[in-house]
Amino acid sequence: MMETNKRMAYVVLAMALGLFMSSLDNTIVSASISQVIKDIGGFEKMSWIFTAYMLASTSTMLVFGKMSDLFGRKLFYLIGISLFLIGSALCGTAQTIDQLIAYRVIQGVGSGAIFPISFTIIFAMSSDPKKAAKMSGVFAGIFGISSVLGPQIGTWISESAVLGWRWCFYVNVPFGILSIVTLLFALKESKSDQKPKVDYLGTLLLVASTVLLLLGLEWGGKDYAWDSVQIISMFSASAIAIVLFILVERKAKEPILPLGIFKNKMVLGTSIIVFCQGAIMFSAITYLPILSVAVMGNENSNSVLTPMMFPIMIGAIMGGFLCTKVPFRTIMIISMAAGIGEAYMLGTITHETAKLTVTLVMIGMGLIVLGPLMSVSQNAVAQNVEMKYIGIASSVVGFWRSIGGVMGASITATIVNNYLKDKMTSFAASSQMPAEQVQKLAKPEVLMQQNTALPPQLVEYMRGALETALHHGFVLALIAGIIGLFVSLFIGGDRYIIGARAEKEVKPKGVPAN
């Protein structure tokens, strides 16, 4: 027993290192981007540094989850983290923007495995479901806090005279190697006697539909108008691929995404709720820095984002503990109800709002809205599927949160940018400003970088316009909270019960033992 507990501790350490490394990378790069562009150029392709990573990680998440169910968690976790390390090391050596984008794809593919399989290994290894539930809270907290901590670490590294932006990637290597070595020796996993059948066509359609959807959301309203041929074509092609995917999965012997798991109302409801959580989370994280610097006049976004950091971790741990005491639904209802209140409060923050008020709003966001659902959602889904689907089930949670995040940030951006453009057009008409000047100024980032070169009267007008635009944008988070709350009322009263998953278990031949 002592030997088993010791191995479990090492596995947890390996998972924590890998998870911290991959989730930190989501945001650490954003802080170093200006230094990257100064060094290797490529300003016009800058957005692809983030888009390539996001597309690769989200589109492969479900694939890795299913492969870990079929061929073993350890193998595909090691494959994922190895790809992530190779991509990280290559990113640090990039000499052109095109090289960096290509290497970010490798990094993203690896990241698509780390997050879902980390949770899967813990659920599969732990003989004590309550301990697994609480540990999932710690893991979710690591993911949440690193998402907010990343920009600050990235700023420090990239502006360091000794390190520089390349170390934003190199820093992953020692953590990743330690995680790999620890897991190699600590995790023992049995093998299947039969070779499972891989759903290649379903995999291809899943990746294609996800990439097309995410590209449409990423480019819509920015690079192309929402009603442009390009965006409509992407959404149409994605819809066709989704329909074909469903048809293929219904007939596949071993589907890449078993659609039957969504017949369980807890799995379906949780998927919708984390989608809403992603929309709230990413729309907030994307625009809080702009709110802090451009509207409130702070030097940076630390005063807004920092109060949300540790509450996310505390909330996630608390959620993992509470879901062993009260129904999942209770926690989800509280989180979504708080999300509505938080979204409303975000829509009332102005340049005159007291810093204490903003700090309390951010603490509430992390402690009640974001943190608890990070862990509770994983536990809720894990308990309601058979063990043979635990990998894909863990991936489903991360997948829908990512999709919701991209959609939330994209729609919020459209609302904010369109309102700001309309206000600047009105200002130009009254002040006889050239149309091309309006196009340059109708961007939220202008007030964060160029306000010293603008006339004070114009700066004041733009700040007021941006403040109102952000208030309009945060309405989307409010709507997401309302939808999430409504869904949470109807997902059933399940709670984390020891042995519940075992009762669902019917092990087929050919599935690796866990």
Automatic annotation (TrEMBL):
It comes from the Bacteria. Keywords: Cell membrane, Membrane, Transmembrane, Transmembrane helix, Transport. Gene3D superfamilies: MFS general substrate transporter like domains (1.20.1250.20), Multidrug resistance protein D (1.20.1720.10). It is found in: Cell membrane. It is a multi-pass membrane protein. This is EmrB/QacA subfamily drug resistance transporter. Residues 11-496 form the Major facilitator superfamily (MFS) profile domain. InterPro entries: MFS, MFS_dom, MFS_trans_sf. GO terms for cellular component: plasma membrane. GO terms for molecular function: transmembrane transporter activity. Pfam families: MFS_1. It comes from Falsibacillus pallidus. PANTHER family: MAJOR FACILITATOR SUPERFAMILY, MULTIDRUG RESISTANCE PROTEIN 3. The chain crosses the membrane at residues 47-64, 76-95, 101-125, 137-158, 164-186, 198-217, 229-248, 268-292, 304-323, 330-350, 356-377, 389-416, 469-491.
